[in-house]
Amino acid sequence: MSETTGIGLPGSPTTLFDHALRLHQLAPGEPLHRDGEPYPDDGSHRHRKGPRTPEDRHSVGKDAAFILDAHFARASALPDELADAFHDVYIPIHPNEHIAAAAEQADRERVRQTGRWLVRHGTDRCSVTVGLALLAAVGTADDIPLIQTIGLLSNRFGPLAAHAFESGPGGVEALLWLAERVTGWGRVYVVEALCRLDDPAARPWLLRRACDGDFLNGYFAGKVATVARLHEALADLGTDSEMVDHIGRLLHLMSDCGGMGLTLAHYPHSRAVLEAHARHVGSLSPTIERYFTIAVLTQHLTTEPPDAAGCTATQQEALRDTYLEVLDREEWTETARAGFTADDNRMRWLADHRAPELRLRAFPDREPDTEE
After folding, report:
1. Residues 117 and 246 reside in one and the same domain
2. How many CB atoms lie within 10 A of CB 88?
3. Are residues 204 and 110 both part of a single domain?
4. Whether residue 240 sits in one domain with residue 207
5. Domain check: are 102 and 160 in the same one?
6. Residues 85-141 pLDDT 10s
7. Are both 267 and 292 inside the same structural domain?
8. pLDDT tens digits, residue range 347-356?
9. Rounded CA gap, 180 and 11, in Å?
10. What is the rounded distance in angstroms from the CA atom of residue 37 to the CA atom of residue 119?
11. Is residue 2 part of a domain?
12. How far apart are CA 132 and CA 149, in angstroms?
């Protein structure tokens, strides 16, 4: 990142940009701890009741656009006059047609400079959000580091940062940089933008790193499998353990993401991918994650009808037997027991919630609990 942290006056509020940059510098390749929360302006936002979302969804963003129109209509108005102008109106965190129209109707260079000032110097999340929306509409390549940095506070700024790169400068490269450093909802916004772009340059990353194990990955797991053309990459599994593990995460998520995203039952290549994963995962050394993933998939194959995995009954039974053979190996059993002893949440969950039909040597003395 080329931007450096500004030095504020003693007692002056910390800008959200400086807050994000400082946390990023502590761990440059990782997501910010707790998505950077609490933000520096938390005190003025934590307990306030409003402003409320407008009842008419088509009017969302109009209040902010009105303020922008009035500001840009005055040739002498400076960006810092907007520093606290949006705190008492509802500000959408997603791309908004009214704010975008206000940006596009004014002088582009002036809009750009205003957006840059608000993102770089804003101390209130409402004004920073509007500034980011302006850059998403008229930003240039020079704004990529600015957008990436504020985008690290991804729960709030991820949607607009992803939109800025999807529709403007930065593209796949900027999105991939951000995708490596966000999680939770921020990861959903960025990975879905990558999927919409459907650029071959993103497929290697999508095949190996898109899912970080968060439950919210279920919103995009099926999109990743489809856009990355997972079924065409299965021949590489024998030499790519990272992709084997990632496919395991994809399959796990797609086995239980009904109402969120594409499930195994509706993914046309479910059987082929499951068979390839079952063939290759047993050749890897056991880890707690691998054991957990296989056990969950085995439970799915045990308790759900064959069409829930895109299989016939015979194919489902063969897959289940292949996975069970791996789970019952001595070294895999020892790994699971060690995880249980260490109080790993995944192993505890398996011990308490596996299906009655799924008897695993790792937990011989515990009766499965089938209640939710």
Report:
1. no
2. 12
3. no
4. yes
5. yes
6. 999 999 999 999 999 999 999 999 999 999 999 999 999 999 999 999 999 999 999
7. yes
8. 888 887 765 5
9. 34
10. 17
11. no
12. 11
Q: Which of 197, 228, 249 is the last residue of a domain?
A: 197
Can you read off the two tokens belonging to residue 219? 């919103």
Residue 215: name the closest of 181, 255, 272 by CA. Answer: 255
Quote the number of domains for the chain: 2
| Position 289 confidence tier, pLDDT thresholds 50, 70, 90 | very high
Residue 7 within a domain: no
Task: Quote the radius of gyration of the chain (alpha carbons, Å).
Answer: 24
Mean of pLDDT values over 161-186: 96
Q: Please give the torsion angle defined by the CA atoms of residues 329, 330, 336 and 338, in that order, rounded to the nearest 10 degrees.
A: -170
pLDDT in tens, 213-249: 999 999 999 999 999 999 999 988 888 999 999 999 9
Binning pLDDT at 50, 70 and 90, where does residue 45 land?
confident
| Global pTM exceeds 0.85 | yes
> Residues of the chain with pLDDT > 90: what percent?
81
Grade residue 51 by pLDDT with cuts at 50, 70 and 90: confident
- Do 302 and 320 meet the contact criterion of CB atoms below 8 Å apart? yes
Domain shared by 348 and 222, yes or no: yes
**Beta carbons within 8 Å of 207's beta carbon, 6+ residues apart:** 224, 228, 230, 233, 243, 246
* pLDDT tens, position by position, 331-350: 999 999 999 889 999 888 88
Same domain for 175 and 219, yes or no, is no
For residues 151-188, b (16+ Cβ closer than 10 Å) or e, as one string? bbbbbbbbbbbbbbbbbbebbbebbbbbbebbbbbbbb
Cβ-in-10-Å burial (0-12, 13-18, 19+) of 305 comes to: exposed
17 lies in some domain = yes
Domain span at residue 52? 13-197
The label of the residue with tokens 């993401």 reads 257
Dihedral of the CA atoms 195, 198, 201, 205 (nearest 10)? 20
- Output the DSSP codes for 37-85: PSPTTGGGTSS---PPPPSSGGGTTHHHHHHHHHHHHSTT--GGGGTTT
Task: Tell me what pLDDT residue 315 has.
Answer: 96
Of 181, 197, 213, the residue at which a domain comes to its end is: 197
Instruction: Mark whether 208 and 186 lie in a shared domain.
Output: no
